[in-house]
Specification:
heterotrimer, A mainly alpha (about 170), B mainly alpha (about 350), C mainly alpha (about 110), A: mainly alpha, Four Helix Bundle (Hemerythrin (Met), subunit A), about 0% strand, C: about 110 residues, mainly alpha, Helix Hairpins
Chain lengths: ~170, ~350, ~110
């Protein structure tokens, strides 16, 4: 029982518990906050998986920017909680639960039964170095994945412009 | 004593030292210093009744904060309303973990000499940790504004968080120049680079200016404190908070100021090093801590000085400055530093 | 921990956690009526997939997995901004974000 196992257990418990809280929460603000805690747990798991840069990125971008954007929209639109009546949706509700439990149980069971998948070790230039993986990540991003990187920047520009246009008020 | 146990004990000692110095000693002194500096600039005496030179004023303030009645607005969501100050305070006091406050201290324990680096957590993502914590701190402000169920709080909260997000960009991009020259995100490497070459403020003066001004905006200090200005928004996002919760916001703001000063000093002004002096041994370590404290204290004084000298920006002027002036300038700075690095390597 | 030593926790554990989170997100996407809650659940699903990618990257010692996760996070940011702008426009048109009430195209 070394520290890594304990940290893994705590982080995954945190992530799963708070994602369930998010699922059962009625108020949108509280579900966003539960998701923030879930992403924190996932960031801790990313650190355990030798990806501290991705963990920092998850907290900065996902938990710190995207979910803040969600909060802003919730505050701007002043959304109240979901309506209490589920009359027209009862059959859909039960079918949905059945689908999720069935498929989820099946896939989770298969994953558990499969154990550790046999994967070949990666090739030379992409091997994660022992001490610090950030220089290699930067180098790979700007050499081997350059096209995807540039396309991503264009995509982000499009998203920014598109969001501005979509949410503009039309003054008639 | 096994090395692992020693590392844990050393980390605990460093945390106790940093929190003890910063929280217990520096913050009360800072509150007193702010009021004395303000008084000096405004040509009036300032607090001078409680203790010699008014030094125990902070103690009186602390007692007042504990004794005041704790008021919660009627329709506020109680859990989130009480949680918001914690979300603001905890990131503010945890950002000190990655800042190197001295060179390494050799400790001899049981015949074996360990070299303790004077930084609490030398993670290899370095300053990204601080940006992550700033992003989390935004939640405290947004929640405080929203859950107070009060128009002024909501406006103050939204304005403040939008301001922080906008200036975070310019701050991050201008800091990239420092990391490009140092070759790493870790702050001890940045300090080592400045020890061997020159303080980063000299070749990257534009980046330094942008970073310092963005740090003012990040900590909600004048001239960027419209979200909490008295004349405009009562008290912005902490209007409805009283007693201990207000004290937490208050402390969080000052802790943010200290952390921002420490980061400016480390990134641009050489951190704990001075040009030409080698800091070795115990004496060197203590000297480096003193140098770091002096530089950080200077920048804290500049924060205080600017607050009582300049008028505040209007909100649209503030956002214009962040997006239309600082962001393009920081990208220009990045380009300039990239050319320097490429020319230097070639 | 660095990437050249064998993993202390079995990869199957990480894969199970990721799968579990994915299906919790799927439950949210299927069962909720508030459009923003559905969107939050979709973000959770994406993050669970990120966890799986990182696990495989760690097992292979290959950094490409981390690069893919980097791209997925950035794309999620772009998609979230567009999606939320659409929700804002939708709310302005129909005064609700309840997906059951957005039914103009229903036969």
């Amino acid at each position: 029982m070394n520290t890594e196992t304990i940290v893994f257990a705590l982080a995954s418990a945190l992530a799963i518990v708070f994602s369930l809280v998010m699922l059962f929460q009625r108020k949108p603000v509280k579900s966003v906050l539960s998701l923030v805690v879930t992403f924190f747990g996932l960031a801790i798991l990313s650190v355990l998986l030798a990806a501290p840069f991705i963990a920092a990125l998850q907290v900065i971008v996902y938990a710190g920017a995207i979910l803040v954007l969600f909060l802003f929209v919730i505050m701007l639109l002043n959304l109240e909680q979901e309506a209490a009546d589920k009359e027209t949706r009862k059959i859909h509700f039960y079918l949905g639960i059945l689908a999720v439990l069935g498929l989820g149980g099946l896939v989770t069971g298969l994953t558990l039964r499969a154990g550790n998948p046999p994967v070949p070790v990666g090739n030379g230039p992409f091997l994660i170095p022992a001490k610090d993986e950030i220089p290699l990540l930067g180098k790979v991003l700007f050499t081997d994945y350059l096209l995807a990187f540039e396309a991503l920047s264009v995509l982000l520009l499009l998203a920014a412009v598109g969001a501005l246009i979509l949410s503009k008020r039309r003054f008639e | 004593m096994s090395p692992e146990l020693f590392n844990v004990a050393a980390a605990g000692a460093k945390i106790a030292f940093v929190w003890g110095v910063v929280l217990a000693a520096l913050l009360p002194m800072l509150i007193w210093a702010e009021r004395r500096v303000a008084a000096f600039i405004q040509d009036r005496p300032g607090p001078n009744r409680v203790g010699p030179l008014g030094l125990f004023q902070s103690l009186a303030d602390a007692i007042k904060f504990f004794m005041k009645e704790d008021v919660t607005p009627t329709y506020a969501d109680r859990f989130l309303f009480n949680l918001a100050p914690w979300i603001t305070l905890v990131p503010a006091i945890t950002t000190f973990a990655i800042i190197p406050f001295g060179s390494s201290l050799p400790v001899t324990l049981g015949g074996q000499t360990y070299d303790v680096p004077l930084i609490i957590a030398d993670v290899n993502v370095g300053v990204l940790y601080m940006f992550a914590l700033t992003s989390i701190g935004i939640y405290g402000i947004v929640l405080a504004g929203y859950t107070s169920n009060d128009k002024f709080s909501l406006l103050g909260g939204i304005r403040s968080s939008a301001q922080i997000i906008s200036y975070e960009l310019a701050m991050g991009i201008s800091a990239i120049g420092v990391f490009m020259t140092a070759g790493s995100l870790r702050l001890p490497e940045v300090v080592a680079y400045q020890q061997q070459h020159i303080w980063n403020v000299v070749p990257q003066i534009l980046g330094a200016v942008i970073f310092i001004i963005s740090a003012f905006a990040e900590t909600n200090r004048l001239p960027f404190d419209l979200p909490e200005a008295e004349a405009e928004l009562v008290a912005g996002y902490h209007t409805e908070y009283s007693a201990f919760k207000f004290a937490m916001f208050f402390m969080g703001e000052y802790a943010n100021m200290v952390a921002a000063s420490a980061l400016i000093v480390t990134l641009y002004f050489g951190g704990w090093s001075l040009p030409g002096i080698a800091f070795t041994g115990v004496a060197g370590a203590l000297l480096s801590i003193a140098v770091f404290a002096a530089k950080t204290g200077l920048f804290i004084f500049i924060f205080l000085w600017v607050r009582w000298t300049l008028p505040r920006f209007r909100y649209d002027q503030l956002m214009d400055l962040g997006w239309k002036v600082f962001l393009p300038l920081s990208v220009l700075n990045l380009l300039y530093v990239a050319i320097l690095v490429a020319a230097g390597k070639a | 921990m660095n990437a050249v030593e064998p993993m202390a926790v079995a990869p199957a554990a990480y894969l199970t956690v990721g799968t579990l989170l994915f299906f919790i997100g799927m439950a949210g996407a299927l069962l909720k009526r508030n459009a923003l809650s559905i969107f939050l659940s979709i973000e959770l699903m994406m993050n669970a997939a990120n966890l799986l990618l990182l696990t495989y990257a760690r097992m292979r010692g290959d950094i490409s997995g981390q690069v893919i996760v980097f791209f997925v996070i950035a794309i999620a940011a772009a998609e979230a901004s567009i999606g939320l702008a659409m929700f804002v426009a939708l709310f302005r048109a129909r005064s609700t974000v309840d997906v059951d009430k957005i039914n103009l195209l229903k036969w």
